[in-house]
Amino acid sequence: MKKIISLTLVTLMLVACSTVPITGRKRLNFVSDADVLPSSFAQYDAFLKENKLSTDKAKTQEIKAVGARISAAVDKFMRKNGMSAEADSYQWEFNLVQDDQLNAWCMPGGKVVFYTGILPVAKNTDGIAAIMGHEVAHAFAKHGQERMSSSQIQQYGAAAIEIGTGDAEAKTKEMWNIAYGVGSQLGMLKYSRTHETEADKLGLVFMIMAGYNGAEAVKVWERMSEIGGSAPPEFLSTHPSNTTRIGTLTSYLPEAKKLAAKYSN
């Protein structure tokens, strides 16, 4: 049984390995859009029914306008790079929710929510575009589907460990679990930081393609740093530190400009 599970894991990894466009990162994704998107869209609709939309018409329109421009840039990229069928699967939607949280998110398939609480950090239209580009990039790179795939692999691996070490001492089993990541979220946390950094880079490219000032992305995280507050060490966080993000965005900005010019033609 252990060999069967191991063979299944290897087969899944070989078959489902693909490359994230632009960054070139190898990813594991065997969860299809057909399995994910209907649920994603339904959950988004349910969220909107249960939460209060902002009554600020000007800001709401700004969010929708920025989202439309950035998603149009993403759509243009996909259709020019042999991804038309994938582009057709997205149902872009952008809403501003009345909530003090410093947050924004995008579900698989292009469903975006901004919270009014993050608008002071965004500060201006370019700042909104920086945050929007980041969130849209999560959907573009299929980070949600990739995390689902990774979670399933972990479940299969846990089963293999349980079978393979069934008669082992507790300490031996614990050692294998720690090595594999079972019972500890540190492996998944690191994985999340990979996604966040990739979304920062992709989002920078997309916001510039849409005609926004990429330098503002750095300023957004500088403003986030000024807010302060307690935060866990970076290795225990699902997101890179503000300092790390500022450094990444600053160093990647010249490359993002080149890529944006290349893909805008």
From TrEMBL:
Entry similarity comment: Belongs to the peptidase M48 family.
Stretches assigned to the Peptidase M48 domain: 69-251
Keyword vocabulary terms for this entry: Hydrolase, Metal-binding, Metalloprotease, Protease, Signal, Zinc
Coiled-coil residue spans: none
A GO molecular-function annotation: metalloendopeptidase activity
One Gene Ontology term, aspect cellular component: membrane
Span of the signal peptide: 1-18
Cofactor annotation remark: Binds 1 zinc ion per subunit.
Example GO BP: proteolysis involved in protein catabolic process
Organism encoding this protein: Wenyingzhuangia fucanilytica
Cofactor: Zn(2+)
Superkingdom: Bacteria
InterPro entries in alphabetical order: Mito/Outer_Membr_Metalloprot, Peptidase_M48
Protein name stated in the entry: Peptidase M48
One Pfam family hit: Peptidase_M48
